[in-house]
Amino acid sequence: MAALGGLAAAALLLLLLLLLLAVGLYCCYVRHVHAKYDHIPGAPRESFLLGHLPIIWRMMEKQELIHDLFLQWSEKYGPVIRFNAFHRVSVMILSPEGVKEFLMSPQYPKDPLVYGRIFNMFGVRFLGNGLVTDRNYEHWHKQRKVMDPAFSRTYLIGLMETFNEKAEELMEKLEEKADGKKEFSMLTMMSRVTLDVIAKIAFGLELNALSDDRTPFPHAVTMIMKGMTEMRIPFVKYMPGKQKMIKEARESLRLLRRVGKECIDQRREAIQSGKEDTLDILTQILKGDALEETRDDENMLDNFVTFFVAGHETTANQLSFTVMALAQHPEIMERVQAEVDEVLGAKRDISYEDLGKLKYLSQVLKESLRLYPPVPGTVRWTEKENVIEGVRIPANTTVIFSTYIMGRMERYFEDPLTFNPDRFSKDAPKPYYSYFPFSLGPRSCIGQVFAQMEAKVVMAKLLQRFEFQLVPGQSFKLLDSGTLRPLDGVMCKLKPRSLPKGFQA
Asked: From which residue to which does any coiled coil extend (predicted)?
């Protein structure tokens, strides 16, 4: 018996020694990795192993924006900064030279750790190998080539009827609230109208999210975005307090993929029987599938989810931020309303030609994206050594680019925290690789023109019909929930404007 006890003690001691050896070797490895990056400027690490993570976790708990911390670091340490987390060191590059080098070239793939993480969400396939996440350039290029016709000028001009129709439905809902007293979240309203638009235009779905409070889609997208935020917390899926959220995020993803499958099956059947000849995103997804040797329904669903989630969330946030900025700057709102009145007059339906004449509104939307970009940045992976701003960046490094931070840096924009649409006037100097709300280069956002057409139609109608003011007491903080959104939802009150003579209500 004593011998057995002795053996158990010896085994435990051996296990302890092996554990200590493993920890020691890991610490040596961390020190070795740090040594490769210690020449790069950066804030002091709070912990040898955790690096800068404790700072990030504290900010997340307080719902503070991490990008603002990096902005402070850029002012203190320069445009190339390192960020330590365990044995990984990432490098943030806030330099036009670096943006041009990495984003304009196809040779730098998206980062495997960052984009691999959103392949699945809590065990359910999420964005998979869709256009946003696909790291294989050849495979991505095939997908992009197939999708491009659905975003061509010819097709986009044909969308004006739907943009007008859905924006009118929003105006009707806002008219019910426009007594100067009712308080409501502009973000909620914008999220619903952009959801209706992307569902109808991309997939032929009539969701009626604006009218039907029982539709599960707005909540599903909210839970998916919440899941994206929570996924950043280490071991979150094992935390008892997070189980309800995780379950809802999984169910929401399954709902989207199930609906996507039904849409794809119905459209495929219609195409095969010769009943369908529409040029929309869903048709292009199916055409791409037909060109491939092997049918890949999961990849098609990846793109369905990508367009469904990204195609409305980002535009809704941009519209809400624009309303927030205009309400804070009445002189700018007056100027843009004067332009809308001049271009549209008593017209109810906005034409494609009208959009081109709304030049100051375009500047307002661009300036909103500079200060409040819904997608704050992007991440790449470099397999070779680079030198940017005189700083050597080792091979096999994650490199981070932020349009949010660069858009708020004095070295690129004069008086950067002031909302000034004239920065984007025809005669103003163009920002040189320091403004990229839709990314840049071959991997730039395919839906950029689509999103800005939709945003213009909605904003023009809103400015034509209503005076809006913000409810006092809002924080105007930004929340990073996968995309940047206004934390308080942009609480507003509306009053109807006196409409031009001849306007048909």
From this structure: 157-184
Three-state secondary structure call for residue 203 = helix
DSSP codes joined into one string, 440-482: -GGGS-TTHHHHHHHHHHHHHHHHHHEEEEEPTT----EEESS
Q: How far is CA 230 from the centre of its chain?
A: 16
Assigned fold of 28-126+376-436: Cytochrome p450 (1.10.630)
From the list 381, 163, 147, the residue with the least C-alpha distance to 284 is 147
Residue 445 annotated as binding site: yes
Q: Which residues pair with 391 in a beta bridge?
A: 388
CB atoms < 10 A from the CB of 260, how many? 23
Q: Is 196 exposed, middle or buried (0-12, 13-18, 19+ CB in 10 A)?
A: buried
Please tell me the distance from the alpha carbon of residue 187 to that of residue 228, in angstroms, as a whole number.
19
Domain residue spans of the chain: 28-126+376-436
pTM of the model: 0.93
Average pLDDT per consecutive 10 residues, the chain (505 residues; last block may be shorter) = 72 90 94 95 94 91 92 96 94 98 95 89 93 91 87 87 96 95 96 94 89 87 89 82 92 94 87 73 77 75 90 95 98 98 94 97 98 97 96 97 98 97 95 96 94 97 96 94 93 89 63
Nearby residues of 47 by Cβ (< 8 Å), 6 or more positions away:
53, 54
CA–centroid distance for 448 within its chain: 12
Reference 190, options 350, 408, 368; nearest CA is 368
- The residue whose two tokens read 């490098």 is 91
